[in-house]
Amino acid sequence: MPVPVPQQRSVPAAETSHGDLTLLVIEDDPAGTTITVPELSAAAGTRVRVRTARNLTEAARLLTDDVDCILLDLALPVAGSDSGPGVGPVSGRADELAALTHVLRIAPLHAVLALTAEDDTELAAEAVRVGAQDYLFRGELDARVLSRAIRYAVERKRADMAQHQLTESRLRAQENARLERGLLPTPLLDGSGLSFAARYRPGRSRALLGGDFYDVVRTPDGTVHAMIGDVCGHGPDEAALGVELRIAWRALTLAGLCGDELLSTLQQVLEHERQSEEIFATLCTVDIAPDGRRAGLCLAGHPAPLLARHGRPARLLPYEDGGPALGLLPRARWPRRQVELGGAWSLMMYTDGLIEGRVGTGTSERLGQDGMVAMVNGRLAEGLAGEELLEAAVAEVRELNGGELTDDVAVLLLGRDPERIRRGGGSAPRSRPASPVVARPLGVQRPPL
Question: Per-residue pLDDT tens for 306-321?
Fold first, then answer.
């Protein structure tokens, strides 16, 4: 099968490569050329299959996925019957690339070489700008030049496609990040007099959201409601379900539901939205009275919060009366337990990612709740509080684990300081949304913890 080349040269071993190649030649007069398949195969160092098409209609029929490269004669006449949709009869210099434009449209995944006369360098360069991988001059073409050009065009097309896919992936990642940031909670605490800090670290690589979720809102009667939960699993479906449960919790809380009634309704939401019946979620809710001195606690298979009163060691709140995780029992109940907080206090709520990390490489021993309490009290003895305390706690858990934690971690800290409330006139600083990894407190002052 002839392709234009006047002579054959030996090819150095470094310029040869393995793997069959298929070349589609689109030229209206291929019989007038002199290159042969054996010559091209010898120059390429591998078997080369050549298909020829006299017009764009034939080319469309011969264009299959196994074609590696297209050699297109830019002088190919383009008639209305050959041009396909969007390309009609053409004339003039501006339309000399109509054939190339058509080929690029019907073969977006194939490498394309433009063949032109050697005195038409401007047209050849324009062909590359339009989308061809390279151009060749008819008079200078031989088997060695053509084989190298084919290899180069194929590799450049692969590189271009990889770069395009990388750019698309980055754009999707940026869009996903913007979407996930919009799904993170914005605490509503204005007028409560409480301080707030949080840390959120998803276990999934390059993710901003995990199956852990939390939220804090203040209802019109002055009660502050806080919640933290964990959907079993670590994938995007679990993250989406966590967002649904958080939004449902906020809506139900603002509608006036609390305690067992709220958790029962959330379980219905979970049962309707989960992917399988094996999916469940743990939850801890706290409703703090308007005076800030007492709270109601409900546990649904979730670790108990940590309470520290001013000048006293931190301790776990009672957890004996907790109910099962959401989604496990169809008619479960979740008792609400009254807890005395006192005047000055800090309350730390967390997910099990904080306590299930290992305490040393090569060991199966977990940190656990007792280890977490000891760790927090150690940090308290060092004088850490608020945001600094949460940052130090998450960092220490990661260090004890010997690397990144595989589970999601969410920790939030609410605090009440009567002295700060009096100095500030009883109003809390404005709430702000939490960062996916670092959530800043709501004010300059930090809680006692």
Answer: 999 987 889 999 888 8
